[in-house]
Design goal:
Largest sheet: 8 strands, mixed
CATH class of the largest domain: Alpha Beta
CATH architecture of the largest domain: 2-Layer Sandwich
Number of domains: 4
Mean pLDDT: 83
CATH topology of the largest domain: Dna Ligase, domain 1
Number of helices: 20
Strand order of the largest sheet: 15-22-21-17-18-19-20-16
Strand content: 15-25%
Number of strands: 26
Length: 598
């Protein structure tokens, strides 16, 4: 029996052999998409490893009569099992198969496409950097959760390192969290198997994202965003990427807008680690993708959408002129397309309309977190780029305008979720717009106008999206930023709410400091409003679980609540101030925290 399965041998029905993630990569390969080459160490390899080395009996003995409620004992047992698996010498035949396949993978750079059919004689001696990932089998386990079991090791190089990383993936089946879950759900530990994906790392010269349909309007265009080097800076919004728009039917390039990029991330050839360097002078200000690459990538993205029968959000990378698809997922929402009448106002700024809509308001420029308090309800928040700490202020804003970013940056994603008009990638909004001036933000067309401009909007019929959830062995939990949006999200393919914040309910529905309510004898108002907010979400997603987090307001945010000035100090840096657990147990806040617990 072979313990190695190349991607060409797998498809979406191979979960029992390759796990969910491995099966999906096989499906992509079978469909002809250019994914980075690789193979799977099958689930049978794991099973034969623990049985032939007698580890199975040792593991079962350690788990026997284990009280998983005893946290220390649980962690001790988990550590013992993982050490047993990692330290155990791998059977020679299994090790040889993994090393042989790994060496074949190293021949790809010199000889093109790698499959199991490549003869050993044609293999280059260069050992590649690879990603080693766990891929748990979910066959016959529709209710099983594999949270905590999905170990991943990047930029692994060398025969022994790959073998050890494979064993570390196997060992990740026995984290304390995974053991606890299986015990609590009466699921036998030995019914779970795990495969391991070994896939060549892409040392990208260029990378980015692409949407097979416009992510906010649903228009039949392909939008590509591109940057130099590895893709993290594009996805995070740390740079303003190039943006290309391609007609989906004719493949004609409709628009090209060059971005601004001074830094890029690359792999250090010596250490294999990701480092940040300056963009070479010969690349600065130059178009990242050639016209030929734009069209070639657009054709691939269109084919991916046709294969999955749903609009796709695709991550891609180019190494030495070759396009690789790193990941694809269904676009979860496509917003309403808004038609705005022609406006004769004075244009003062243009950028990328990342979240459609129109709003007018007073400009408030946010240079750092200390400026967030000045953003009041209905203002236009202007900043270089938003981050998670700005979300409360973003919710108060009528519109958002940023210097940097593209369609997948933080400002774009959060604004679309909240339904707030947003323009990103303007380049100089924080310099052109003046503090306190009134502007109109037309985020449907990416234009900022001077003063308040009246614009009539006529929403088109809501675009429909067919969801096709990818095959995963791990359950997908949603991070619910805005509880009021749950009715829009309830039909998405998720397994529960992994994080629901209380802050939005306190700020929006209660609006008063809890100690102020206690002083007035209105404790029940706080309890009832908070319970109602949690109930709304729980009822909408039932029987899926909801994990609620206690409040985590900073002192400046508590001061913004009615009556808050009396109970909150003024701190120089609220981010590292009186918040979280230190607040819960303090005498000054204990009574207020008890209201949350009730």
């Amino acid at each position: 029996m072979s313990y190695i399965a190349w991607f060409e041998e797998l498809d979406k029905n191979s979960i029992g052999i390759a796990g969910g993630k491995g099966a999906n990569l096989g499906e992509m390969h079978k469909a002809g998409f250019p994914i980075p080459p690789g193979f799977v160490v099958t689930a049978d390899a794991y099973w034969d490893f623990i049985t032939s080395t007698n580890l199975k009996e040792h593991i079962e003995e350690l788990l026997k009569d284990l009280d998983v409620e005893d946290t220390k004992k649980l962690q001790d047992v988990a550590n013992q099992i993982q050490k047993l698996i990692i330290s155990q010498k791998m059977p020679l035949q299994l090790k040889r198969e993994i090393v042989k396949a790994y060496k074949q993978l190293g021949g790809e750079k010199k000889f093109g496409e790698v499959t199991k059919k490549v003869p050993m004689v044609s293999i280059s001696r260069e050992l590649p950097f690879v990603a080693v990932r766990s891929s748990a089998t979910a066959e016959d386990l529709p209710e099983a959760s594999f949270a905590g079991q999905q170990a991943t090791f990047l930029n692994v190089r060398g025969e022994e390192q790959v073998v050890k990383a494979t064993q570390a993936c196997w060992a990740s089946l026995f984290t304390a969290r995974a053991i606890f879950y299986r015990e609590k759900n009466n699921f036998p530990h030995m019914k779970v198997k795990i495969a391991v994906i070994i896939q060549r790392m892409v040392d990208a010269d260029k990378s980015g994202v692409a949407f097979s349909s416009h992510p906010t309007t649903g228009e039949p265009v392909i939008i590509i965003e591109a940057g130099w080097g590895l893709g993290e800076l594009v996805v995070s919004g740390a740079i303003t990427p190039d943006r290309y728009v391609v007609d989906k039917n004719t493949m004609k390039i409709l628009e090209k807008k060059l971005g601004k990029q001074d830094k890029m991330r690359v792999k250090d050839p010596l250490s294999g680690k990701t480092i940040e360097v300056d963009v070479p002078s010969e690349k600065k200000g130059k178009q990242v993708l050639s016209d030929e690459e734009i069209v070639e990538l657009a054709k691939i993205v269109k084919k991916i959408e046709e294969h999955y029968k749903a609009p796709q959000d695709v991550e891609w990378a180019i190494e030495r002129g070759r396009i690789f698809i790193v990941q694809t997922r269904a676009v979860t929402t496509i917003g309403k397309e808004v038609e705005a009448k022609e406006v004769k106002g004075e244009k003062i700024l243009e950028g990328l309309g990342a979240s459609p809509g129109v709003a007018s308001g007073t400009v408030k420029i946010v240079h750092d977190l200390s400026d967030l308090d000045k953003v009041k309800q209905g203002d236009v928040l202007v900043t270089v780029m938003t981050n998670p700490d700005m979300v409360p202020a973003m919710k108060r804003a009528a519109a958002i305008v940023t210097d940097e970013g593209g369609m997948t940056c933080h400002a774009a994603i959060v604004s679309r979720e909240m339904g707030i008009p947003a323009i990103v990638g303007t380049g100089n909004a924080t310099k052109v717009l003046k503090e306190g001036e009134v502007v109109t933000v037309d985020a449907t067309h990416g234009v900022v106008y001077k003063g308040k401009v009246e614009m009539e909007e006529k929403p088109k019929e809501e675009a429909k999206v067919v969801y096709e959830a990818p095959v995963t062995a791990t359950k997908i939990y949603m991070n619910l930023g805005v509880p009021d949006k749950i009715d829009e999200y309830r039909d998405l393919p998720f397994d529960g709410i992994g994080l629901m914040r209380e802050e939005f309910i306190v700020a929006s529905e209660i609006g008063k400091h809890p100690n102020y309510l206690i002083e007035k004898g209105e404790e029940n108002l706080f309890i009832e409003k908070l319970a109602a907010g949690i109930e709304k979400v729980a009822k909408a997603v039932y029987p899926r679980p909801v994990i609620v987090r206690f409040s985590d307001f900073k002192t400046n945010e508590y001061r913004d609540l009615e009556g808050g000035e009396k109970y909150e100090p003024e701190e120089g840096n609220p981010m590292i101030g009186w918040r979280g657990c230190s607040r819960y147990i303090s005498p000054e806040f204990e009574k207020a925290f008890r209201l949350e617990c009730k």
